[in-house]
Amino acid sequence: MQIIYAGDTNQVKIICPKCGLEENKNVFKFKDTHKRLKAKCKCGEVFRVGVEFRKYYRKPVRLHGEYVFRENGEKGEILIEDISMTGIGFSTLKLHNIAKDDTVELKFILDNPMRTEIRAFVIIRWIAGRNVGAQYIDIDRHKKDLGFYLSA
């Protein structure tokens, strides 16, 4: 299944996997549905398309790291599962005491040739068991490194 990103414009370019015909569509009405779209090309090909309504690409990764919860000194190992320019998804290896809206520091090393170390403060946006979604608070010092990493 093809995944396409709508970004701020809600405009997507759907490309037929059979003939390569491109068609621009406004997908605003599907923004809150989280459904896969069924597309039919002029050539007769029927295929499914997933639409992501996010500003930045989210790259799936498997990076080891750690978190430090400054309020109570709690530390733990994490597995980073996805990363973007504005946020990060990870799972803790053990149970944690992190709650929504907490601020924690994350430390991890990118799997790029330079083995870039990232230390960033994040605010926790959602939690589902040991799975956590967070948004960077101030990522300016790593913006260049992350931008290059995400485009590779």
Q: Strand arrangement, largest sheet? A: 6-7-8-11-10-9
Count of alpha/pi helices:
1
CATH superfamily of the largest domain: predicted glycosyltransferase like domains
Helix share, percent: under 10%
What is the number of domains?
2
Order of helices and strands: EEEEEEEEEEEH
- β content, as a range? over 45%
Structural shape:
elongated
Rounded to an integer in angstroms, the radius of gyration calculated over CA atoms is: 18 Å
Count the beta strands.
11
Examine the coordinates and then state which fold CATH places here, giving the name of the CATH topology of the largest domain.
Thrombin, subunit H
Average of per-residue pLDDT values: 88
N- and C-termini, Cα separation: 22 Å
CATH architecture of the largest domain: Beta Barrel
Biggest sheet architecture: 6 strands, antiparallel, barrel
Per CATH, the class of the largest domain reads Mainly Beta
Low-confidence stretches: none
